[in-house]
Design a protein that fits this description.
Radius of gyration: 21 Å
Shape: globular
CATH topology of the largest domain: QueA-like
Distance between the termini: 23 Å
Number of helices: 11
Strand content: 25-35%
CATH superfamily of the largest domain: QueA-like
Number of strands: 18
Largest sheet: 10 strands, mixed
Length: 400
């Protein structure tokens, strides 16, 4: 049954001064709130390896934020901001970012009404040479535009064009422009695959030394790739959660990670809500393989509430592994709209590392699904003990 939730019940007062506008100088010096069966306590994030249960498999999202914001000007001088959300043609992130000469993306456009029929042009420099990026508006639907990009330097990939002409899209609630330091600090140290328009911010606290310390404590790690779209942070505008539509996000999980999940004995802790959504979506993909012997690559947001299956995560992971081996595939690719909210029952993860989220957001609903009404105690404690909030803020370790 689709959960009947009033979003107003998942609100709290967040003063603007509690939102971290900048990261701390040292990534792992942030505060860490720990919530487990013993209640609530706090530590420094660098102590995470000793706070994780023995035998934990820690799963990271290795996506990389692209410079998705492009600032154009019309011939009249009007500013038009084009924000790349997801590739259209080619539809694969890897193929679109590797495209040369042209590609198209679904975008949000600032000042859309002032962008008439003319193409927009932007000059940029690459290796000392001046190049031109052009944008053509192909269509508009539900406030989003399909934009055709083309560029004069035919040898450049679109990733290289964005690197030279685009701006890293830091969150709008920071109320400041992107600064040079953000190009490093708004990426995780383990980011690999380009495609996100927002960082998986729970991972921003990790350092190379901390990752090494995890291994020293016997904490195994694995990676998934989920490209974070703007929809993850889309506010819930409807009064009832069942009227909110989640934006689909694409993800990939390698055979290597699946093998580690198979051996994890239900001790999986996800780094970030995006990793949680990816791993939980895996369960529903594997379940469909078990029940229907068919791959369902698109997980709709209410599937978990319409199917009360009691299959174990190890059963469904086994099925996915066998599917990949039979079809000689190295990874599974899919997309998910899954909305995790009370009374969701977690199948794949038993804990998560996550920052503190905005009131009335789907991310806060996910926290509430894992903690029940104790989310209120967690956020009250964080506010009363000077924790810093949102993307550049402090962190929490939540264990079931």
């Amino acid at each position: 049954m689709i959960p009947q939730i009033r979003i107003a019940d998942y609100s709290y007062h967040l003063p603007d001064e509690r939102i971290a506008k900048y990261p701390l100088p040292q990534r792992d010096a942030s505060k860490l709130l720990v919530f487990d069966r013993n209640g609530i306590s706090e530590a420094v994030f660098s102590r995470l390896p000793e706070l994780l249960p023995e035998g934990t498999l820690l799963v990271f999202n290795n996506t990389k934020v692209i410079r998705a914001r492009i600032m154009f000007r019309r011939s009249t001088g009007a500013a038009i901001e084009v924000f790349c959300l997801e590739p259209c043609k080619p539809s694969s992130y890897a193929q679109s970012l590797a495209a040369k000469k042209e590609c198209s993306w679904i975008c949000t456009v600032g000042n859309l009404k002032r962008w008439k029929e003319e193409d927009l042009c932007l000059s940029f420099t690459h290796n000392g040479a001046t190049c031109t990026l052009s944008a053509s508006k192909l269509s508009v639907r539900d406030g989003e535009a399909t934009v055709q990009f083309s560029w004069s330097a035919a040898e450049l990939t679109f990733a290289e064009v964005l690197e030279a002409a685009g701006v890293l899209p830091i969150p709008p609630y920071l109320h400041r422009p992107t600064e040079n330091a953000d190009y490093e600090r708004y990426q995780t140290v383990y980011s690999k695959y380009e495609g996100s328009v927002a960082a998986p911010t729970a991972g921003l606290h990790f350092t190379p030394d901390l990752l090494s310390n995890l291994k020293g404590k016997g904490i195994d790690t694995a990676e998934v790739t989920l490209h974070v779209g703007a929809g993850t942070f889309k506010p819930v505008k409807a009064s009832a959660v069942q009227e909110h539509e989640m934006h689909a996000e694409r993800f990939e999980v390698s055979l290597e990670t699946l093998m580690k999940l198979q051996q994890s004995h239900k001790k999986v802790v996800a780094v970030g809500t995006t990793s949680v959504r990816c791993l939980e979506s895996l369960f529903w993909i594997g379940l469909n393989l078990l029940e229907n012997n068919a791959l369902q690559p698109n997980i709709e947001q209410w599937i978990p509430y319409e199917n009360k299956s009691n299959f174990d995560i190890s059963n469904v992971v086994d099925k996915i592994i066998n599917y990949l081996k039979t079809n000689e595939l190295s990874h599974i690719s899919a997309s998910t709209q899954i909305l995790i909210a009370p009374p969701y029952r977690f199948r794949a993860v038993r804990g998560m590392v996550t920052n503190f989220h905005q009131p009335q957001s789907t991310l806060l609903l996910l926290v509430a699904a894992m903690t029940g009404n104790r989310w209120q105690d967690i956020y009250r404690y964080a506010l009363e003990h000077d924790f810093r909030f949102l993307s550049y803020g402090d962190s929490s370790l939540i264990l079931q």
